Amino acid sequence: MITRRQALFLGLGTVGGLGATFFGRLRAQQLYQESLADPKRDFSVTGDLPLGDRALAKGLLYGAAVHTDYLADPDFESLFWHECKILVPENELQSKNLRPTPDRFDFTKADRLAQLAHEHDLQIRGHSLIWHILLPDWFTEVVNAQNAEQFLINHIQTVAGRYAGQMHSWDVLNEAIETGDDRSDGLKKTPWLELLGPEYIELAFRTAAEADPHALLVYNDYGLEYETRLGYAKRRATLRMLEQLKTKGVPIHALGIQSHLNAADVNFNPTGFRAFLQDVASLDLKILVTELDVTDRYLPVDTVIRDRIIASVYEDYLAVVLDEPATIGVLTWGLSDRHTWLSWSSPREDNLPVRPLPWDAQLNRKLAWNAIARAFDNAPSR
Ligand code: XIL
Questions:
Q1: pLDDT at 166 over 70
Q2: Among 370, 287, 294, which Cα is nearest to 322's?
Q3: Minimum CA distance residue for ligand 1 atom 6
Q4: CA 171 to ligand 1: nearest atom
Q5: With pLDDT > 90 as the criterion, what percentage of the chain qualifies?
Q6: How much of the chain exceeds pLDDT 70, in percent?
Q7: 3-state SS string for the chain
Q8: 3-state class (DSSP) for residue 216
């Protein structure tokens, strides 16, 4: 269902698209922002239930990424356990942080998070077994065409095997599609692809399934949320890859949609995104929103307006995602503006503190919290 607001900006977007003048686009952008900042928009929430409980009431999971260091703050820690029903280690399970040397794994921090999740009755999901970023510094010197297959198998067997039976799900493979790399299969030219060819993907999922038959095995990626030329291409390439894997009987169970949203991007089309989610579900795959946050990089200075726009983006996006029965959970990439990767990965030009997450840096709830709470409260039950 397209809302009045979306119809307005879609129409403008079309006009902008047809006779794309700078001012036409700017006007569309302005109208879009004004509609998102609508002072009359209702963000009221009934009761005080935490987000995790509201999600659970609909058969969904809500949680967040967390770093062991963040939990050293008692106020943050108690908020985290109060609101979340699942956690994902932000970095502790990345190979760079697990493998100080080629022959040694250091699971200290990852084990700590797994233990804390267990103690606080939270589920835990793993992120990520195979990625081309946060590889150990020694990777390129040590891993070569002759040993890469055994290295990949050993890594997954050791890491996924260690937590077998504990993990809700694993991001087995992260960010492997890049249509700009001009391959007909749309795969990103990563060290894994260069060393092993496209077969590394099937190998990773089959190895993970053997190492932990209990975990949901997830392909995780970004850039699927907006209807830009690259977004369309990435959706098509991702669906094609997933369909090929499923056809071959590869044990893959879900698509992780990172959902790093941009409140200034006018290319979110609820109808088109809903259709994409339906296409994913039709492959007998579940859907996880794995790294949700909304950058306010290009928004006005005024934090009241910024928070309203951010909250609108959260609620409009989640209304679409949660309408898809295959969606099983939502994790935000952090809880509080105190700890967000966007501070350095997407800083504002005016250098004002960014405000992308449901709680502010002082751990006060924001309208974004209301928006997410409303999305869970209004979601159909699973
Ligand atoms: C980021 C973390 O938040 C940072 O702390 C780290 O330095 C780099 O990675 N997509 C992903 C995540 O899959 O692993 C990334 O997280 C953000 C983009």
A1: yes
A2: 287
A3: 91
A4: 13
A5: 90
A6: 95
A7: CCCHHHHHHHHHHHHHHHCCCHHHHHHHHHHHHHHHCCCCCCCCCCCCCCHHHHHHCCCCEEEEEECHHHHHCHHHHHHHHHHCCEEEECCCCCHHHHCCECCECCCHHHHHHHHHHHHCCCEEEEEEEECCCCCCCCHHHHCCCCCHHHHHHHHHHHHHHHCCCCEEEEEEEECCECHHHCCCCCECCCHHHHHHCCHHHHHHHHHHHHHCCCCEEEEEECCCCCCCHHHHHHHHHHHHHHHHHHHCCCCCCEEEECCEEECCCCCCCHHHHHHHHHHHHCCCCEEEEEEEEEECCCCCCCHHHHHHHHHHHHHHHHHHHHHCCCEEEEEECCCECCCCCHHHHCCCCCCCCCCCCCECCCCCECHHHHHHHHHHHCCCCC
A8: strand
Both tokens of residue 3?
A: 């809302």
pTM for the whole thing? Answer: 0.94
Average pLDDT over residues 180-200: 98
pLDDT given at position 19: 62
The residue whose C-alpha atom lies closest to atom 5 belonging to ligand 1 is 341
Residues with CB under 6 A from ligand 1: 90-91, 174, 258, 291, 341
Could you tell me the distance, in angstroms and rounded to a whole number, from the CA of residue 129 to the centre of ligand 1? 13
Question: Can you read off the two tokens belonging to residue 65?
Answer: 């990424």
Q: Which residue among 125, 178, 333, 344 has the greatest number of ligand 1 atoms within 8 angstroms of its CB, and so is best to mutate?
A: 333
> Which is the closest atom of ligand 1 to the Cα of 334?
3
Lowest mean pLDDT among 1-10, 243-252, 253-262, 315-324: 1-10
Nearest CA to ligand 1 atom 13: 174
Can you tell me the mean pLDDT for 107-126? 98
What's the mean per-residue pLDDT of the chain?
A: 94
Q: What is the pLDDT of residues 39-95, one digit of tens each?
A: 999 999 999 999 999 999 999 999 999 999 999 999 999 999 999 999 999 999 999
287 pLDDT band, cuts 50/70/90, is very high
